[in-house]
Design a protein that fits this description.
Blueprint lengths: L1 E5 L2 E5 L5 H7 L23 E4 L5 E3 L10 E3 L3 H16 L15 H8 L23 E3 L9 H9 L5 E4 L6 E4 L15 H5 L5 E3 L3 H8 L5 E6 L20 H11 L3 E4 H20 L8 E2 L4 H10 L13 H17 L6 E7 L4 H4 L16 E4 H11 L20 H4 L6 H15 L17 E8 L2 E9 L1 H16 L8 E5 L17 H16 L10 H11 L5 H7 L6
Parallel strand pairs: 1-5, 10-11, 10-13, 12-17, 13-14, 16-17
Antiparallel strand pairs: 1-2, 3-4, 3-5, 6-9, 7-8, 15-16
Helix pairs in contact: 8-10, 8-14
The structure holds 2 iron/2 sulfur/5 carbonyl/2 water inorganic cluster and iron/sulfur cluster (SF4).
GO molecular function: 4 iron, 4 sulfur cluster binding; ferredoxin hydrogenase activity; iron ion binding
Pfam families: Fe_hyd_lg_C (PF02906), Fe_hyd_SSU (PF02256), Fer2_4 (PF13510), Fer4_9 (PF13187), NADH-G_4Fe-4S_3 (PF10588)
Keywords: 4Fe-4S, Iron, Iron-sulfur, Metal-binding, Repeat
């Protein structure tokens, strides 16, 4: 630890702490635009300037480490004026059409302008026109809004190891664009949406599909069905001023009914179904040696896109089980529609997800039309859902609680933990243990799979048989696990893992690219705590014990991996 002073207040911080972080110990949030706790500093915006006492030189707090004895000044009239000028320069090159911007109300530049009381921009307007790129099914780039902070480039290259984005051009013509200036759809982008979640302004944002849903809700010929993903329930409250991790499941069911949906289901039920199929696949491959090991999870569509693009030789290791919301989609337009006497194509399926890549997943292959028409019609992110609630005027937080429609809505604790990194693995092992031994796992909490460490490895004992597992989240972490597997297999050795879970986003879906803005590790951890609390308070905590899952197999599918299950609940991957 080192001793420093911030505005004459003594504070103690670990050696290596930046001035920006150290100032927080003295309750000072130094203004910034480019810096983000997830990313290495780019020192691009120049707003976080500070001084060392009795020295007029200004230094950038984000990129300078606190040194022992340093006396830091975080604000004085000169620093205020320079910061204000930096903001005015940024605004002189910005469209400033806040009322029509997707980030209106939660834009970091808008907030700084408000904080600094900027009333006019004293420079000539220097906006350079750039075309909007809306070629991707998941997100849109509007380079005119870009403040060149570099967060999107860093997140795509460093956190996700995708390298889809880069800066193109120089000076005023500089803009963010897909690498080699191709359209986003033709770039290596895997649609994870992390660039949209880290952009401080409205330069990158999810495709807004709320108009299509509002329209469908007015259509009397359509039977409107909706489902919510595990991670939505612990994050949506943030947009209404609640703490991250607050569980709002029953209020969400209520608001969806008030918005006009005919049936309200839960993706967590689909997660229980995915576990039934995926744990069965694991037993087939691991115990009966029918298929390659390790088995790799596939419920994250950005991860599927990544593997298909970067590691196509590993496709045989993928589970063929569809992701939970696709399972619910297929079952809604078959099992449920048949029970209700509805035609599949008259059912309109909406998924509310923490994810932008799910917008692409719904039309990625013919298998996503298992019912004869597209199984899920539209995906809304948590952010889009929040806007729907707010524009409806419904007093969301004061609604009475309600239940989902039971047929595809009742879930176990294993279903909800899908929303946090390690949750799919934990849920799968709870059921695989039962499938392999015929006995229930005594202690269902598998702490080894939990937490925000980028790669988690463990050996799980299933009655004397050792199962080696790995869990990775944040795409940049995946390569280490895959390379270990590839080199073992190339050398003709046993692979180091039998089962691998991957989620593209840091923290898993709680940190998804479509979640409320402002996620940091602290917020991801709080959302995950909500997820595990929901599991802990569930009466049933293993997917195979879900009575509605059991009924579905009995009435309709037969058993896991049956012909019917394969037709409706499994998919293929392509290079
Ligand atoms: Fe996820 Fe999944 S957990 S992928 O992260 O398998 O999006 O929440 O809905 O489908 O269940 C996302 C979350 C989500 C699916 C499930
Ligand atoms: Fe990169 Fe993900 Fe953004 Fe695509 S969605 S540009 S992969 S960060």
């Amino acid at each position: 630890m080192i001793q420093i002073k911030v505005n004459d207040m003594a504070v103690e911080v670990p050696r290596g702490t930046t001035i920006l972080e150290a100032a927080k110990k003295a309750q000072v949030n130094i203004p910034k635009l480019c810096n983000h706790p997830d990313l290495p500093p780019t020192a691009a915006c120049g707003l976080c300037i500070v001084k060392i006492k009795n020295n007029p030189k200004m230094i950038r707090a984000c990129a300078t480490k606190a040194e022992p004895g340093m006396e830091i000044v975080t604000h004085d009239p000169e620093l205020y004026e320079v910061r204000k000028t930096v903001l005015e320069l940024i605004l002189s090159n910005h469209p400033n059409d806040c009322l029509r911007c997707p980030r209106n109300g939660n834009c970091e530049l808008q907030k700084l302008s408000e904080d600094f009381g900027i009333r006019e921009v004293p420079f000539t307007n220097m906006i350079v026109e750039h075309p909007v790129d809306d070629s991707s099914p998941a997100l849109t780039i509007n380079p005119a809004k870009c403040v060149k902070c570099g967060r999107c480039v860093e997140v795509c290259q460093v956190m996700q190891n995708v390298w889809a984005l880069e800066f193109i051009g120089r000076g005023y013509n500089m803009r963010i664009a897909p690498a080699a200036d191709v359209k986003l759809i033709d770039s290596p982008c895997v649609k994870c949406g992390q660039c949209t979640a880290h952009c401080p302004v409205g330069a990158l944002y999810e495709k807004d599909e709320t108009p299509a849903v509002w329209q469908a809700l007015q259509d009397p010929k359509k039977h409107k069905v909706v489902q919510i993903a595990p991670a939505v329930r612990v994050a949506v409250g943030e947009a209404f001023g609640l703490e991250p991790g607050t569980i709002l499941t029953k209020k969400i069911y209520s608001v969806l009914k008030r918005l006009g949906f005919d049936a309200v289901f839960d993706t967590n039920f689909g997660a229980d179904m995915t576990i039934m199929e995926e744990a069965s696949e694991f037993v087939e491959r691991f115990v009966h040696k029918k298929g390659p090991i390790p088995l790799i999870t596939t419920c994250c569509p950005a991860w599927v896109d990544y593997l298909e693009k970067y590691y196509p030789d590993m496709i045989p290791h993928f589970s063929t089980a569809k992701s939970p919301h696709e399972m619910v989609g297929a079952l809604t337009k078959t099992y449920y529609a048949e029970k209700k006497g509805l035609k599949a194509c008259d059912v309109y399926g909406v998924s509310i997800m923490p994810c932008t890549a799910k917008k692409y997943e719904i039309s990625r292959s013919e298998e996503m039309k298992a019912s004869g028409c597209q199984d899920i019609d539209v995906v809304l992110t948590t952010r889009e859902f929040t806007r729907m609630i707010k524009s409806s005027g419904i007093d969301f937080l004061n609604l009475p609680d309600s239940d989902p429609d039971h047929i595809l809505g009742d879930y176990t604790g294993a279903g909800v933990i899908f929303g946090a990194t390690g949750g799919v693995m934990e849920a799968a092992l709870r059921t695989a243990y039962y499938f392999i031994t015929g006995k229930e796992l005594g202690k269902v909490d598998l702490e080894e799979t939990r937490g925000l460490e980028g790669i988690k490895k463990a050996t799980i004992d299933i009655q004397g048989t050792k199962v080696n597992i790995a869990v990775a989240h944040g795409l940049a972490n995946v390569q280490y696990v895959l390379e270990e597997v590839k080199s073992a297999l190339a050398a003709g050795k046993e692979p180091p893992y039998h089962f691998i879970e991957v989620m593209a986003c840091r923290g898993g879906c709680v940190g998804g690219g479509g979640q409320p803005y402002g996620a940091t590790d602290e917020i991801r951890a709080k959302r995950a705590r909500g997820i595990y609390q929901d599991d802990k308070q569930s009466e049933i905590r293993c997917s195979h014990q879900n009575p509605m899952v059991q009924q579905l197999y009995k009435e309709y599918l037969g058993k896991p991996l049956s012909k019917k299950s394969h037709e409706l609940l499994h998919t293929h991957y392509h290079e």
